[in-house]
Automatic annotation (TrEMBL):
Name of protein: Phosphoheptose isomerase
Pathway as given in its UniProt record: Carbohydrate biosynthesis; D-glycero-D-manno-heptose 7-phosphate biosynthesis; D-glycero-alpha-D-manno-heptose 7-phosphate and D-glycero-beta-D-manno-heptose 7-phosphate from sedoheptulose 7-phosphate: step 1/1
Function: Catalyzes the isomerization of sedoheptulose 7-phosphate in D-glycero-D-manno-heptose 7-phosphate.
PANTHER family associated with the record: DNAA INITIATOR-ASSOCIATING PROTEIN DIAA, SEDOHEPTULOSE 7-PHOSPHATE ISOMERASE / DNAA INITIATOR-ASSOCIATING FACTOR FOR REPLICATION INITIATION
Further comment found in the protein's record: The reaction produces a racemic mixture of D-glycero-alpha-D-manno-heptose 7-phosphate and D-glycero-beta-D-manno-heptose 7-phosphate.
GO cellular component: cytoplasm
Subcellular location: Cytoplasm
Amino acid sequence: MIEKVQKQLQESINVKIAALSLAEKVASASQLIIQALSHGGTAFFLGNGGSAADAQHLAAELVGRFEKNRKALRAVALTTNPSTITALANDYGYENIFLRQLQALAAPGDIVIGISTGGASPNVVKALTWAKEKGIETIAMTGENGGDLARIASLLLTAPSSHTPRIQELHITWGHIICGLIEEALCSNG
């Protein structure tokens, strides 16, 4: 059992070491969000399953606090309202649950962050496609091939792995780094 634990920890470490080469892209993603927030925009986060949890986690870090007591930042996870999600899924199909919310809430100057380990979740693809068509900046966090989101996102962060747990571990690490850079840039005076 100990060997299995060590093996999985080593795999996680190896993915993060491989991701060092993506530092510039992570900084660019941070800058896109900083730009939107500094001009009164909102950061919209979305994803399914574990990626939905990451979307909620990262939105909460911005609205609440990450490492500093500071002003609240405009961030929304489109995964948090069961009544909205189930009504939209029932009336418009599950593939439209994020799209319909963005149609109601998002505008140019905002930013949409889609999280999908395979990069092919139909509801995430539809949402980012719509955002792109409306001139809204988009960031996608995916696994190694980027899936359909590779051709849609303004900026693509591809975890160097095809193993879902390792991808998700890197996504939340990137999210924490991005939240820290946002706080540093926008909230130095509380």
